[in-house]
Amino acid sequence: MQSITKTLTEIVSAVFEKCGYDGKLGTVTASDRLDLCQFQCNGAFAGAKLYRKAPFMIADEIAAELASNSIFSKVESVKPGFINLTLTDEYMLQLTKEIALDKFCGVPQTENPETIVIDYGGPNVAKPLHIGHLRSAIIGEALKRLARACGNKVCGDVHLGDWGLQIGLVIAELSERYPGEKCFAEDFDPASDKVPELSAELLCEVYPFASKKSKENEEFKAKAHTATFDLQSGRAGYIALWKEILRVSVADLKDNYSKLGVDFDYWYGESDADKFIPELMDILEKKGLSYESDGALVVDVAKEDDKAPMPPVIVRKSDNSSIYATTDLATIIQRNRDFKPDKIWYVVDNRQELHFTQVFRCARRAELVPESTELTFLGFGTMNGSDGKPYKTRDGGVMRLSDLIGTVTDASLARLESSDKVAAENREDYARKLGMAAIKFGDLINHRSKDYIFDLDKFMSAEGKTGIYLLYTVSRINSVMKKAGAAEKKFSGIYTDSERELILKILMTGDSFISAMEEKAPNIVCENAYQLAVSYSRFYHENRIIDEPDEAKRASWLALSDLVREMLVKHLDILGIETVENM
Ligand code: ARG
Fold first, then answer.
1. Is residue 500 a part of any domain in this protein?
2. What CATH code is carried by the domain that includes residue 359?
3. Nearest CA to ligand 1 atom 11
């Protein structure tokens, strides 16, 4: 189904053309004065300049033509040149029925499906997932589902940080703890020698320990750098140990992501880009882009009109090891080859913007992707505590993601314990879903680029713009439907104002999905879901649905309730939020 403003724009544009004007003037938007009309067209103002006429003359002419169209209950030309439009109830109901039958539930399908790769998650092997990774996972997952729901071919790649210094640090530390292990010897034989079995708990302890040590101890730091370089050069014992680190770490990550309801199509790591590095270096050299500077190999990416300094991007360090930018550039070669994407979106912390600007500019200069392939950095802000600083544990440490999930699930469980609606055996499952809804909606309702304050009480509130309020609304409709029994659901008319207002929100939903996709902004989906829920609540309070004696009216209201439920569930699903039956 196409969006309502698109349909109306087609109608109004045709009238502009019929009257001898440019059809482009016929753009229709939602009204910002719902007390006056539902939709508006301001094309007469631009037309006035083009055709040297007073805007109201054009508006009058267009309005007179539109008035004969039976879909409008009111067409007004308002000085100095507005065209105000309101639809008839019959037409609104007809569109509502179409949405109810639409298999995409009113989400407009794109005319030109695109292949989009989304780089999100970005966890680092051997390091525990912290809440900085939470936003990337939540926002990236929502963008992936949104782009898919609009009809695009989308794949999500976790882009595991598995090739950097953190592995060298872990290897260096393990070599000091277990010096006798064969994997640290030069003559390690992968066919017959074994590596020590590791655990997630051990890794959680080793990495922070080694990281701290490297800051205090130069010798250890040098050792970690050498280990990183040796690993990247393929030293057999280190590769074997790295595989063990990867095995343990990835299993732990998958477990955490599945609790979050986040899943990736690809689990490629930075290490997978390694085989594309020689090709990258070759291209950079052949195109005359790379040159040596202080022993490192760099590429200039500054532009004349840069306002801030733009340092060259380092593609190989003086010790010959490759770094973050190298793997990102090589990954672009791999993605271009494997997916031929129209777009690559990077959902990463705002603080990495400079890195991505450098990488994208270098990729453009080197023509690693066709010009038409968009490379977009979708930066996000920080999740802060009530003190306005990055959210920490009570004792001031970095908050682990698993701890945060635990805190929120416990809070939900405490609430459900006092509820008589939820059976004891469902409580744990519900608590997890409620907790996730609270965290995810609390995050996604903010524009991704903004910082926000993590406020558990606010996120868990059943009122206001919260995930809990939305789950509550769905559960309320569930109980309406259950109480009403299996009545036939058939739209028969629009009987009250609150119902008309709700239907208008339903009709505007397609437009909100289009803007969310255009702006890559899941907060627009959150806002629309909230608006639908608020309108439904008003409708519910102002009409006695179940007790309504008029059969046709009752059936129509049930059909409407059912549709709202379906749409809310769809919105929530796009946001990666699961619903519960009752609460
Ligand atoms: N692993 C990185 C980090 O924790 C994020 C990776 C983002 N994606 C990328 N292609 N660089 O900061």
1. no
2. 3.40.50.620
3. 328
Domain of 209 in residue numbering reads as: 165-259
Separation of alpha carbons 253 and 263, rounded Å: 11
The upper half-sphere exposure of residue 121, i.e. CA atoms within 13 Å in the direction of its Cβ, equals 32
Q: Is residue 467 within 8 Å of 438, Cβ to Cβ?
A: yes
On the CB side of 114, CA atoms within 13 Å amount to 18
Tokens of 7: 């349909």
Please indicate whether residue 159, judged by its CB atom, sits closer than 6 Å to ligand 1.
yes
What is the best residue among 352, 376, 401 to mutate for testing ligand 1's pocket, by most ligand atoms within 8 Å of CB? Answer: 352
User: Would 62 be classed as within a structural domain?
Assistant: yes
The answer to the question of residue 418 being in a domain is no
Q: How far is the CA of 530 from the centre of ligand 1 (A)?
A: 32
The whole-model pTM stands at: 0.95
DSSP 8-state code for residue 110: P
Angle between helices 497-518 and 131-149 (to 10 degrees): 110
Alpha carbon distance 431, 413 (integer Å): 5
Give the strand pairing for 115-119 and 82-87: unpaired
pLDDT in tens, 235-258: 999 999 999 999 999 998 998 899
Q: What residue's CA is closest to ligand 1, atom 10?
A: 328
The residue from 226, 259, 292 where one domain ends is 259
CA of 59 to the centre of ligand 1 (A): 53
- Which SS3 state, helix, strand or coil, does residue 390 take? strand
Give the pLDDT confidence of 412-456 residue by residue, as tens digits. 998 888 777 888 888 999 999 999 999 999 999 999 999 999 888
**C-alpha–C-alpha distance, residues 109 and 148, integer Å:** 9
DSSP of 256-283? HHHHHT---SB--BGGGGGGGHHHHHHH
Give how many domains the chain has, as a whole number.
3
Together in a domain, 77 and 172: no
